[in-house]
Design goal:
Helices cover 26% and strands 22% of the residues. It is of the alpha+beta class.
């Protein structure tokens, strides 16, 4: 996630101590719809689900069969765009009135269709302008149109509902809206967007987003993408409209409401950089904010042009316990920047971790949640490289420590590309094995094929799958193509083995037995006690 965990004793380290041309502020070319959709190959049970949904006489909760979140997503249709309207009255404990408009295309004959939605009251639903019956089944909103939907038919679904920022009842999940000191923000990863708005809540179905948010005077609204307009509303309120220029997974949606300021500065090649910070903290946070353009240039030098239309950090005065890579506007806790016990190299590495996710996880999204290692392993990799350059632990030291702990991490959480199912709450899939344990896979690959070939793999990966989804098999194929030989036999035990394979070039590295005293992970995004410096 981003709901990444940290152990104080494993972050101990030294104390503070030109990329490709970007489209910048200009509107980039729209991604081709066909290319984007063909990247979406859902899990093998989809064909069975499609047959069942067409014939099922009793609508019920569904899902596309994701191994880790089997009830997420819905077969039978492809969402093309979301248009989400929210009305906020200034009380972050009261439900918001909302209208979610979904443009979709049917992929099968449908007597009914399911949307992921819970923790809100549905007032009405229409499909193509006609009233549709609706009901609940598990965490699904089941919609029954007047007439059967034909394959290929374009659907316009309008749901009028509330969006509730109050925490769900025990046993009903977690996440969605996060209440801050002066408003709200979103934290939807992995399975919580449907606690904010109805949709197809799985990263395999990316779509365009428009946000229209009405808020009282004095409340600043910022969302994913770029500001498309502001208009006066009743009672002195303002309606803010934002649009994304690239497709986005529901788990990456972000809306910030609060008494905030929005500092702006140019990034590489004219990229708009806009941050969102509590109004009273602008001067205090400015030393951190001004680092973003340099960090963007650092990432572009390694993997290529920034993939989106804007970037910035959203600093929220709240205690979530995590940081989150919401698309174009990463979410951070205020305390990360104000607690002086966090060394500078550490805070820098946290910022770069979430920035790296814009390429790995946001632009190239996981096809299934078992492909999470591709997000977190890569973000951890670039976080570690940046930390090394800024006075933190060296990459080799960090990887050697991860190697020692890797067997224990695999026993606890499963191998990187086949993590164990979530236990008590969604955050349990964000275990050390998908962070440092997965960065270790990338280190092994670089050791095996060499640094130059590894860099080519990284750059091709984000270029060839931009604005789409991809899975572990695609990464293995690409690495094999770059290396000029089949790497399947080499990578399979690294990705799926219960034990950690020997590390190329480091025959002296040994893995501790599971249960031994081990570091949890050096990844910083599940913040605990500040790390010690030495």
């Amino acid at each position: 996630m981003n709901l990444e965990r940290i152990s104080a004793n494993t972050l101990a380290g030294p104390g503070p101590g030109g990329g490709a041309e970007h489209t910048g502020g200009a509107t980039p070319p729209r991604p081709r719809r066909r290319a984007r959709r063909t990247a979406r190959v859902l899990v093998p049970v989809l064909a069975v689900c499609l047959a069942l949904i067409a014939a099922a006489p009793s609508p019920g909760p569904q899902g596309i069969g994701d191994r880790l979140f089997p009830v997420l997503g819905n077969p039978g249709y492809d969402v093309l765009a979301y248009d989400l309207s929210l009305t906020y009255k200034g009380d972050n404990r009261a439900p918001l009135e909302a209208v979610t408009r979904i443009t979709a295309r049917a992929e099968a004959p449908l007597d009914h269709l399911n949307l992921d939605f819970s923790h809100g009251k549905v007032h009405s639903v229409t499909v193509n302008g006609r009233t549709a019956r609706h009901g609940s089944a598990g965490q699904d909103l089941v919609v029954t149109p007047e007439t059967r939907v034909r394959p290929g038919e374009r659907l316009r679904i309008v749901v009028r509902h509330t969006s509730d920022p109050r925490p769900p009842a025990a046993g009903q999940g977690e996440g969605g809206w996060v209440r801050t000191k002066d408003g709200l923000a979103m934290a939807n990863q992995a399975d919580a967007a449907h606690r904010v708005f109805p949709g197809n809540d799985h990263p395999s179905d990316k779509a365009d987003f428009t946000f229209r948010v009405t808020a009282p005077a004095g409340v600043t609204v910022v969302a994913n993408g770029l500001l498309a307009g502001r208009a006066d509303a009743a009672g002195g309120a303002t309606t803010w409209t934002y649009r994304s220029l690239h497709p986005m997974a529901t788990e990456l949606a972000q809306v910030s409401l609060g008494r905030s300021v929005v500092p702006r500065r140019p990034g590489p090649h004219g990229l708009p950089v806009r941050d969102v910070v509590p109004a009273g903290d602008r001067d205090r946070l400015e030393p951190w904010l001004r680092r973003t353009p340099g960090q963007l240039r650092w990432m572009e030098k390694r993997v290529g042009a920034f993939p989106f239309e804007a970037y910035g950090v959203l600093i929220a005065d709240t205690n979530t316990g995590f940081e989150l890579e919401t698309q174009t506007l990463s979410l951070f806790e205020r305390r990360l920047f104000t607690d002086r016990r966090y060394p500078q190299w550490y805070v820098d590495s946290v910022l770069v971790h979430e920035l790296a996710h814009q390429w790995f996880g946001d632009s190239v999204s996981p096809r299934t949640w078992s492909d999470l290692w591709l997000n977190e392993g890569h973000a951890t990799w670039y976080e570690a490289l940046y930390a090394e350059e800024r006075g933190g632990p060296t990459l080799e030291r960090r990887m050697r420590e991860a190697y020692g702990a890797s067997d224990g991490w695999r026993a606890e959480g499963g191998p990187p590309a086949r993590p164990k199912a979530p236990g008590n709450g969604k955050i349990s899939i964000f275990r050390p094995v998908v962070y440092d344990g997965s960065a270790l896979v990338l280190y092994a690959l670089r050791q095996e094929i060499g640094a130059d070939a590894f860099t080519r793999v990284e750059r091709r990966w984000v270029a060839e799958h931009r604005d789409g989804t991809a899975d572990t098999a695609a990464f293995v194929r690409l690495a094999s193509d770059v290396a000029g030989r089949d790497l399947g036999a080499f990578l399979h035990p690294w990705l799926y083995g219960a034990k950690t394979p020997p590390m190329p070039g480091h025959p002296d590295w040994t893995a501790d037995a599971p249960g031994a005293e081990q570091p949890r992970s050096t990844t910083p995004h599940r913040l605990a006690a500040p790390p010690r410096t030495r």
